[in-house]
Amino acid sequence: MAETRDVVELILRDHRRMEDLFRLMRSVEADRAAALREFAGLLIAHAEAEEAKVYPALKRYKNIDDDEVEHGEHEHEEGNEALLALLEVDEVGSEEWDSKLEELVEAVTHHADEEERTILNGARENVAAERREELGAAFLEERERLLKDGCGDIDNVRRIVRS
Q1: How far apart are CA 35 and CA 83, in angstroms?
Q2: Among candidates 70, 63, 68, which has minimal Cα distance to 127?
Q3: Is residue 10 within 8 Å of residue 139, measured between CB atoms?
Q4: How much is the average pLDDT of 34-45?
Q5: Within 10 Å of residue 128's Cβ, how many Cβ atoms?
Q6: Angle CA(103)–CA(108)–CA(110) in degrees, nearest 5?
Q7: Assign residue 150 a region: left if phi > 0, alpha if psi is -120 to 50, beta otherwise?
Q8: Which of 34, 42, 44, 97 would suit a FRET pair with 148, their CA atoms being 20 to 30 Å apart?
Q9: Does residue 17 surpass a pLDDT of 80?
């Protein structure tokens, strides 16, 4: 895949990877625990990088609805809470695990769909390509820093949810 720095494309790429990880976490043939570990890091790093580097910049554009951006932040909180609930289940593949997984899938899928239709389409239409690339570089740098710091670790997810 060609390397892109466009923040819209980077966010969409993460959304597609999350969908792939959901499929793995649902599969009895996959290493579901490993998929969850990767997912936890990706979800936290993705959301935190969006909130730190992308959302504040997009709020400056008059054709991008500030309420949608704030709603996106609220949905990140819901996704983080659902992630923590799944991480706290003791037995991978148990009924409780499957139930908490579906709650997580629901929260994250709903957010990604809404974000793609509102915020990301607005960014694609109203933000110059050069600026989207600048935002993409900042998003990637913050995302990678968070991943390197183990942001998906259960203790960090607890701290984020409870703060």
Answers
A1: 13
A2: 63
A3: yes
A4: 98
A5: 8
A6: 95
A7: left
A8: 97
A9: yes
